[in-house]
Amino acid sequence: MRGRLVMMVAVALGLLAGSCTWNNNDRGTAGEAQALVDKAIARFQEAGPEAAFAEINDRKGRFVDRDLYIFVIGPDKIIAAHGADAARIGMNVMELKDVDGKLYGPELAAAPAEGAWVDYKFKNPVSGEVEPKSSWVKSVDGYVFGCGYYKP
User: Fold this and answer.
1) pLDDT(14) > 60
2) 26 and 146 in contact (C-beta within 8 Å)?
3) How far apart are CA 59 and CA 119, in angstroms?
4) Alpha-carbon distance 16 to 136, whole Å?
5) What is the dihedral sign for C-alpha 63, 64, 67, 70?
6) Per-residue confidence at 24, pLDDT binned at 50, 70, 90?
7) How far apart are CA 71 and CA 57, in angstroms?
8) What are the pLDDT digits (tens) for 73-94?
9) CA nearest 104: which of 90, 94, 114?
10) Where are the domains of the chain?
């Protein structure tokens, strides 16, 4: 009887633990972030900035996938589109710092056409926690397109 009770408690705890955490399948990857940037750039080149940015800003649209989302920096260094937080649109990226005081905005804005990774800490929209993040950024026609993945 005692063995059966221990087994039932173990199973219950396992189910509870599984429901309280999110696994790696819930997290985007570096490759997925790069692919989402390429997809956003293709849409920008096909439809122009107004239509592309409207789609990027849609939190339920095709440019948001789990904890991955597109952000766009305009030629004026102002955030032009943001798939996770519309309140960030209009912010000057040159002033962006992470929780450790790292000034990461200028690194984002300096993205080359071939792309580059920028590391900083940022709030994960899925977990709600500040986590290490690496964003893939590429410059196209004066705009910077980016998407980052969170590192557990």
Assistant:
1) no
2) no
3) 23
4) 35
5) positive
6) low
7) 8
8) 999 999 999 999 999 999 999 9
9) 94
10) 27-150
